[in-house]
Amino acid sequence: MVDVQIVMERLEALKGYIAELDHYAQYSLSELTSDFVRYRASQHSLQLASQAVVDIATHIITADFASRVQDYRRAITQLGKEGVLPAAFSERLAPLAGFRNILVHEYLVVDPAKLYDVLIRGRGDIREFCERISEYLERASTAPQTGQPDALNNEAIHE
Q: What is the rounded CA–CA span in Å between residue 101 and residue 153?
């Protein structure tokens, strides 16, 4: 079963990252890229936000659905397949995992226009992700327990 506290902590952090992104979104692309510190800060905020999304997705998929996560993109799309998120929304959000990989591993080739596009257009999806995960946690907390072993614990029930 999902550890609600872990997910809530990440959701709270994600809300803070969204506020940072909202701040950077007030600038035009040229204003953002002309200030090195502002540009790097916006990159880092996007990296942290995307990491929080994939952390939450992988936690829910492994804890509540006992599924192995093969990659971050699939963790997000799996949320759609399992009904945690609407399927169309999970497909729209999934490329954020690839953008996270670029920010982390290919940071020398980040296209400023792509970063700005994610900053401007992606914030709404990240915000919606927070709302939908909060709704999922509410549904999960009121659902009856199935008596199955805890996926995080991985201990079998011995009778």
A: 29
